[in-house]
Design goal:
By secondary structure, the chain is of the alpha/beta class. The chain has helices spanning 35-44, 59-66, 85-93, 115-125, 191-196, 220-234, and strands at residues 4-8, 29-30, 33-34, 50-55, 69-70, 73-79, 101-106, 109-110, 129-139, 144-147, 153-157, 162-175, 205-209, 215-216. It is 25% helix and 31% strand. A hairpin with a 5-residue loop joins strand 10 (144-147) and strand 11.
Length: 235
């Protein structure tokens, strides 16, 4: 079965401007090559055939670097003329996907989970949305989510200081078409705020816990950490 993914790669990298400039955030250099190259290399190990890159800011630099193929992956592009939010970008990109279910990744986050397991849970539960989650301790940077004994997500909570909890890892498996009626007539919306949160109790949204390395490169400190941690994961 064809395995397809959408990578949300339209970030501006505003918080990284002190250490990088003139490139979109997913193209920030990590160990001598763009962060996005490391992410795509990981996807190539997870049985993906086709990746859609949702791009916007300085998209030409991404297209010029990767072209139509990379490490055995066929690459398509969805170009935003104006920012659509994570939900709007995903909805627009989904028109390039043919599979019954497809995966979603953030172009600035490394969370190299076992996607065979994520797809197995998605299929077994018949979920509309499967969210891969990560257990963390002593944090306040991320919002949290809760789920029951059947792994059905029951609530999303705002960012606050938390001793321990599960965060949304930014890796999803979505049933094709589930976004079509998500926010009708509204092309720009947040996947998290405008779709996931209002869908609790209305759609089947399942948590898939994963104990994999997790890092996003949103700030200078994490970007510096990525220089040492990310290359060893994808080499």
């Amino acid at each position: 079965m064809k395995r397809e993914a959408i990578v949300l790669a339209g970030g501006f990298g505003t918080r990284l401007r002190s250490v990088i400039e003139d490139v979109p955030k997913p193209m920030a250099p990590i160990g001598g090559e763009p962060f996005l190259a490391h992410l795509l290399r990981y996807l190539s190990t997870q049985k993906f055939d086709h990746v859609v890159l949702s791009v916007g800011y300085l998209h030409e630099k991404i297209q010029d670097y990767f072209g139509d193929t990379f490490r055995g992956l066929t690459i398509s592009y969805e170009i935003e003329d104006e920012p659509l939010g994570t939900g709007g970008a995903l909805l627009a990109s989904s028109r390039h996907v043919e599979s019954e279910s497809f995966s979603v990744f953030n172009g600035d986050t490394m969370f190299p989970v076992d996607m065979d397991n994520a797809y197995a849970i998605h299929k077994r539960t018949g979920a509309d949305v499967t969210i891969v989650v990560k257990a963390l301790e002593n944090f306040e940077r991320y919002g949290t989510l809760s789920f029951d004994s059947e792994q059905q997500i029951t609530a999303f909570e705002e960012k606050r200081k938390v001793e321990s909890g599960y965060i949304n890892g930014g890796v999803y498996v979505l049933r094709q078409g589930v976004l079509d009626r998500a926010v009708e007539g509204q092309p720009r919306f947040s996947l998290e705020k405008d779709f996931f949160e209002p869908s609790v109790g209305k759609l089947s949204m399942v948590a898939c816990p994963a104990d994999a390395f997790f890092l996003d490169i949103g700030g200078p400190e994490d970007y510096e950490r990525a220089q040492h941690e990310v290359p060893r994961l994808t080499s």
